[in-house]
């Protein structure tokens, strides 16, 4: 039977995942309805929709993994089950991170203003740039899946030892696990550096634009607000991304040092903040999604106010 700690973890995990899925389903539905009505979808909306779909899959597998950890932990011993969870989580998490990275790059090319020929050439071909990024991410995904298989085998061995109260098995190589863990987390460094570069270049573009505005005070300054808004979106992604990757790395170190699979409960909850919280930030940062969301909340509150007197 699950303990009190297990039940609390499961309740929080379910609440966190359902909240995140509602936000992402909202994004997908609104953009799909908009696409059906107008028969077209902007590049930004297309990226955000793909991002939301990948996060729905990520939250579903996280929710399933939470149930397995609490109710059926013995399934981790089954090779197919543990590898299915690990590979599917890696796939959805990888796509989620890279779609968010593509969104940061898209913000940079659409809003930043530089006169360098190379930048202008890439700006007019931003669609191809994003396609190259996604194809490159699929190349990295193959290594990610391979690393995940090694880590999955290690976690299954840890569970077996915890159940038998046995000492460390000589068949399990700590050195191999540590090297794989380092390489696995190194894969996240690439999208982080790409997004960080986009943020820094947006900042430089903002400084340049601000200097030009001071020289020509009569010009209407719409670009400054666009720069600041884009920087806030990219910065929020980077902060949540750091929290997300730190949680993954911490989970690996907990398995490595404590050799207890239940020690990752808190870290699992922390890592789920990224696909949930960032989706709400995207909704608030998008005027169309924000207005529709606020309208739905207003209608819901009016409906609850009308239903309250009837219930009493």
Query: Please, how many helices?
Result: 11
Shape from CA axes?
globular
How big is the Rg? 23 Å
Question: How would you sum up the major sheet?
Answer: none
Q: Strand-residue fraction?
A: under 5%
Helix content: over 70%
> How far is it from the N-terminal to the C-terminal residue, by CA?
39 Å
**Residue-averaged pLDDT:** 78
H/E element string?
A: HHHHHHHHHHH
Task: Flag low-confidence runs.
Answer: none
How does the helix and strand content classify structurally?
mainly alpha
Total strand segments: 0
Briefly summarize what is shown.
With 312 residues, the protein is mainly alpha-helical. The protein is built from eleven helices and no strands. Helix 1 (4-38) runs antiparallel to helix 2, helix 1 runs parallel beside helix 10 (273-285) and helix 7 packs antiparallel against helix 8.
What can you tell me about this protein's structure?
This protein has 312 residues and is mainly α. It is built from eleven helices and no strands. α10 (273-285) crosses α11 (287-311). The model has no long low-confidence stretch (mean pLDDT 78).
List the SSEs and their pairings.
Blueprint: H1 4-38, H2 43-71, H3 79-111, H4 117-123, H5 126-164, H6 174-186, H7 189-215, H8 223-257, H9 265-271, H10 273-285, H11 287-311
Helix pairs in contact: 1-2, 1-9, 1-10, 2-3, 2-10, 3-5, 3-7, 3-8, 5-6, 6-8, 7-8, 8-9, 8-10, 10-11
């Amino acid at each position: 039977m699950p303990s009190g700690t297990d039940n609390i973890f499961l309740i929080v995990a379910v609440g966190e995942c359902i909240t995140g899925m509602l936000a992402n389903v909202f994004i997908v539905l609104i953009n799909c309805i908009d696409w059906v009505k107008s028969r077209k979808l902007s590049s930004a909306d297309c990226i955000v929709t793909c991002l939301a779909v990948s996060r729905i899959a990520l939250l579903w597998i996280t929710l399933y993994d939470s149930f397995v950890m609490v109710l059926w932990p013995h399934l981790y011993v089954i090779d197919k089950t543990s590898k299915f969870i690990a590979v599917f989580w890696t796939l959805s998490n990888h796509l989620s991170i890279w779609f968010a990275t593509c969104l940061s790059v898209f913000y940079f090319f659409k809003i930043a203003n530089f006169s360098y020929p190379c930048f202008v050439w890439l700006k007019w071909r931003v669609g191809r740039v994003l396609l190259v990024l996604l194809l490159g991410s699929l190349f990295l995904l193959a290594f990610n899946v391979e690393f995940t298989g090694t880590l999955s085998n290690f976690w299954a061995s840890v569970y077996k030892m915890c159940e038998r109260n046995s000492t460390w098995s000589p068949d399990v190589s700590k050195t191999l696990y540590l090297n794989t863990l380092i390489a696995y987390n190194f894969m996240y460094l690439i999208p982080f550096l790409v997004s960080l570069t986009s943020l820094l270049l947006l900042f430089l573009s903002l400084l340049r634009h601000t200097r030009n505005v001071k020289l020509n005070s009569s010009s209407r300054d719409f670009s400054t607000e666009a720069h600041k808004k884009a920087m806030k979106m990219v910065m929020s992604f980077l902060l949540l991304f750091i929290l997300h990757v730190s949680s993954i790395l911490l989970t690996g170190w907990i398995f490595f040092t404590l050799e207890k699979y239940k020690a990752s409960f808190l870290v699992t909850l922390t890592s789920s903040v990224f696909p949930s919280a960032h989706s709400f930030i995207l909704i608030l940062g998008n005027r169309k999604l924000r207005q529709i969301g606020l309208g739905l909340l207003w209608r819901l509150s009016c409906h609850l106010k009308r239903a309250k007197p009837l219930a009493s």
